[in-house]
Amino acid sequence: MGQNEVENNVALIEKYLRKVDWIIRKKGREILNDINITDPQFIALQYLVSNKQLTIGELSQRMSLACSTITDLIDRMEKSELVIREKDEQDKRVVRLIAQPKGHDIVKQVLEKRREYLSEKLSGLSDNDKDVLLKNLKYLYEAMTEN
Q1: pLDDT for 48-67, tens place per residue?
Q2: How far apart are CA 55 and CA 53, in angstroms?
Q3: CA quadruple 16, 22, 27, 28: dihedral sign
Q4: Which tens digit of pLDDT belongs to each residue from 72-116?
Q5: Which string of DSSP letters, residue by residue, matches the chain?
Q6: Quick check: 40 and 73 in contact, CB under 8 A?
Q7: pLDDT above 90: residue 27
Q8: What is the pLDDT of residue 20?
């Protein structure tokens, strides 16, 4: 395989990974329309569910949004009973954001919808092909997360 073909394959792999990611996210977020939650609110919920609790500053960094924007976002989410603000036990100046059960349920529903969609689309692959795909995606992930 020549260098041009290798470079072309890498470009195609990146392209299809990006497209697959976008489609899976879009399918999973269809449920958000039914429950009146915005994409940024869902992204914030995902961070809070997976990290247990974050400060406004930490969430701001992860989402690449200004603290004032995150504060407005959290205000709306708090009114919808998706999150709560809680003062830190050791340092009362620090306020932690914690996803409420309703927020956890929304993330769970969306992830289930994504998995159902992916399972449907993978149904044409043999079990062996699914194992190979999983092995290769896991390899790629581990290579990308190495220090």
Answers
A1: 999 888 999 999 999 999 99
A2: 7
A3: positive
A4: 999 999 999 999 999 888 888 888 999 999 999 999 999 998 899
A5: --HHHHHHHHHHHHHHHHHHHHHHHHHHHHHHHHHT--HHHHHHHHHHHHHSEEEHHHHHHHHT--HHHHHHHHHHHHHTTSEEEEE-SS-TT-EEEEE-HHHHHHHHHHHHHHHHHHHHHHTTS-HHHHHHHHHHHHHHHHHHH--
A6: yes
A7: no
A8: 95
Asked if residue 41 lies in contact with residue 76, where contact means CB atoms within 8 angstroms, the answer is yes
One-letter amino acid at 47 equals Y
Residue 116: its pLDDT value, please? 92
Q: Assess contact for 60 and 70: CB atoms under 8 A.
A: yes
Question: Is residue 62 within 8 Å of residue 47, measured between CB atoms?
Answer: yes
